[in-house]
Amino acid sequence: MSMPKPGLQNPNTAEMRELTMSQAVNEALAEEMRRDPTVYIIGEDVAEAGTPFKVLLGLVDEFGTDRVIDAPISEPGFTGIAVGSAMTGMRPVVDIMFGDFLGLVMDQLANQAAKVHYMSGGKLKVPMVLRTNLGATRRSAAQHSQSLQAWPSHIPGLKVALPSTPYDAKGLLKSAIRDDNPVVFMEDKLMYQFKGPVPNGDYTIPLGVADIKREGTDITLVGTSSMVHVALDVAEKLQEIGISAEVIDPRTTYPLDKDTLIESAKKTGHVIVIDEGYERYGVTAELASVIADGAFYYLDAPVKRMGAMDVPVPFSPVLEDQTVPTPDSVFEMAKKLCARK
Amino acid sequence: MPTNVIMPVLGMSQDKGRVVHWLKAEGEKVRAGEMLLEIETDKAVAEIESPADGILSRILTQEGEEVPVTQVIAVIISEDEASRQPSATIKSEPVTQPVKVPSTPEARPVVPSPLAARIAAEHNIDLQEIKPDGGRIQKSDVLNYLSTIKTVKETAGFEARLKASPKARRLAAEHRIDLAQITGSGPEGAVLADDVLTAAAGLSPAVPSIPEDKPVTPNVLLQEYATPGTIWRLMAEHTTKTWTTTPHFYLQRNVNASRLLAWHKLVNENTAEKITITDLLVFIVARSLIKHPRLNTVWQDGRIGLTGEINIGLATAVEDGLVVPVIHRADQLTLSVIAARRKEIVSRAQSGKLRPNDISGGTFTISNLGMYSVDTFLPIINSPQAAILAVGRIAEQVVPVNGSVGIQPMMNLVGAFDHRAVDGARGAQFLKTLAEIIEEPIILLK
């Protein structure tokens, strides 16, 4: 089930380059727009500005303002346009500047896009992608720093992808665009400059397939998005004290690759689930529950969850850094869980 | 106004107390001064009186639970308040009618529905135990009650369940190892997978056996074990703690007891209350401590605490061990009051009816084993007190008297001191004062 590690992936593709996360997303969009004329982008500052994070830079030059559409500052409005156009056969990619603005588009997303296929008896479909971001520690304060992946993950009819590497970002985004269901695609805004190997040319990663980012035997660290890298750092540190950690990246919270999570938990008997969203009722709760249920008789300790604290994300850097799981806090928790005689 | 019942402070070093036994149930009437419950501290078991008249409305600390001192452990409300709060737990006076709800204004006799009665009978349930939602006991009331009992039973079973991780349980079953035989290394002693694997590895080579060259200690065949009572257990814990944490030193002195005996004879001629040698010693020690306040201290957290009162504890043997009831402010009491008080507390100690005040606040302890014909002994301090006086029997001995050989009634005193609070010189000076008064009691009049 698992994909090979970055750098070893897709042996059929000869050319591998180091791309940033931002470049990988840009390349996926460009390739899909060339491949399929129904694919278009709509959002705030997406054309000339290429978004505040410069992810879409250059796309308007190639595809023009008919396919890279700068919308007025009305998220519900342009998301509604996208949902409607998707029903007519287009494949819109909506850009929501900050994940925190999901609240503005929630009706279009949860009540329209997610439900139309079902309520029309399968006559209509909404092959839309809504790209937005997550992630704290950018000093963007409480309204621009949240990781709200739990919200769309909760809604039947929506798929949710959380790429953690440039490779995953390109492959998952292509699958999302080609999927006939609405997919919420959330990128960590702090990882846009994170580099990794990406094959030149077309490849896809199926939605609903977890990736074993590192193999281990003593403890499973399940991480999403930014937290995959925290988990990898921790695994490295744990190795030094003789604890072998396995790092699992579900890559999509829905569909969820339960089997990979459960199998890893059965193997190690100790699990920490880490997600940058609020721990309270968060993504970690669902993953931990799936693991506890599926691997109960193999668990040697309770499944631990680590997420953002139960507070608005502070602007103060000193405080903000403490609100989300850190390599130190995860390392301490892992040591505690694995404590031997 | 509801009255709170609190966990009392009985000893200077006491920070917690355990409820041993409630003598009254929730809803029962209580009178101020009536015994309400038994508590256990690090030193003894004591009965606590009700602080007010009224109804024991709520018990907040159950039997066996330990709580910090001054924490509220129960609430007593007046009967007026009780009648205004129908929701409070109140049992009515003995029921005259078959089944009756508590005496609320709208109280009516409660009749079960035939179906409810049948279900109750099938499950052996007493209908009086059931509190109906409405005016009549319905099927649903009985079923609710049934589920409550079931929950209680299940909860109790859960608590008794051995702690082990799911993985450990599975491995134990696979290796056919009894989890109860494994010492857990996990949180709260939970058995973890590694514990099971270690045990499995240890068991697998052969049938477990004890090597013959390593006999199990003790090397005697134990016929049976006696489970000590509460007082014995507390004595064991308290003396172990004191003995292992307090640096004891001892000073010993022989004193001539002829004047003491003369005094004893004299006071008993003129007093209705029988006065014992112990009473005289309490009197003497209390007044000596006025001159030696340093002996009347406690060592606590690196500081010497002066106590301000002279409260003499008497080590008293009871059926189940040792208790130390206290004669408070003994330096201010006359001999006959000391004797009366001693009689009272010793008798309460022996009948197991000590009250909190009887065992609290001691600042110095006397242990007299003279009546057992012990010549001398080295006592353990009653911590956190700084000193204890061990008194042996008065016996005739051959001693030098004014350059010739004489026979005198002699008594041996041993002072045991906590070297953190008292040094050798101070202990010796105290013992000197004591000896001088015992040999010449008239000094007290100085």
Overview features:
heterodimer; A: 341 residues; alpha/beta; Rossmann fold; 14 strands; disordered N terminus; B: 446 residues; alpha+beta; OB fold (Dihydrolipoamide Acetyltransferase, E2P); Chloramphenicol Acetyltransferase; six-stranded mixed sheet; 11 helices; 18 strands; 31% helix; extended
How would you describe what is shown here?
The complex is a heterodimer of chains A (341) and B (446). Chain A has helices spanning 21-35, 59-63, 75-87, 102-113, 116-119, 150-153, 166-178, 226-240, 258-268, 283-294, 317-323, 327-338; strands at 16-20, 39-43, 68-70, 91-95, 129-134, 159-161, 183-188, 195-199, 211-214, 219-223, 245-249, 252-254, 271-278, 304-308. By secondary structure, chain A is of the alpha/beta class. The two termini of chain A are 35 Å apart. Chain B starts with a strand and ends in a 7-residue tail after the last helix. Among the domains of chain B are: 1-91, Beta Barrel (OB fold (Dihydrolipoamide Acetyltransferase, E2P)), CATH 2.40.50.100; 231-445, Chloramphenicol acetyltransferase-like domain (Chloramphenicol Acetyltransferase, 2-Layer Sandwich), CATH 3.30.559.10. Chain B is α+β, with helices and mostly antiparallel strands. In chain B, helix 2 (114-122) runs parallel beside helix 3. Chain B is built from 11 helices and 18 strands. At the A-B interface, loops of A face helix 4 and helix 5 of B.
